[in-house]
């Protein structure tokens, strides 16, 4: 896609700090560096989001994720790592080429936070069973 910034990095039209590249996948440092070593792993095929991904493209991307994650952990002595993927604007996606964020974590106070809300009291075993049945009709 001509206007996609990640496709431009893939095609070497603009610079990128590339950590890994093969026939199917590219991994490069995110220019925002949420934390030191923040890296993006992308398919070379232009696909917008997880809903557009093929199983094959996803397999290629995630076959590389552990290798890059371990390199980041070892290089920067990270205590943990968030692996994040945002799909569609409502979920925070701002670049519409599928990408996985590898965000090394160093302390509980570093510059990245994830907050999960516990809504357990809103869902009974019966409502969870009904949700499951709804999902299974589309699986």
TrEMBL record:
One of its GO terms (biological process) is nucleotide metabolic process. A motif (Histidine triad motif) lies at residues 97-101. The active site is at residue 99. One of its GO terms (molecular function) is catalytic activity. It comes from the Bacteria. InterPro entries: HINT, Histidine_triad_CS, Histidine_triad_HIT, HIT-like, HIT-like_sf. Residues 5-113 form the HIT domain. SUPFAM superfamilies: HIT-like. This is HIT family protein. It comes from Turicibacter bilis.
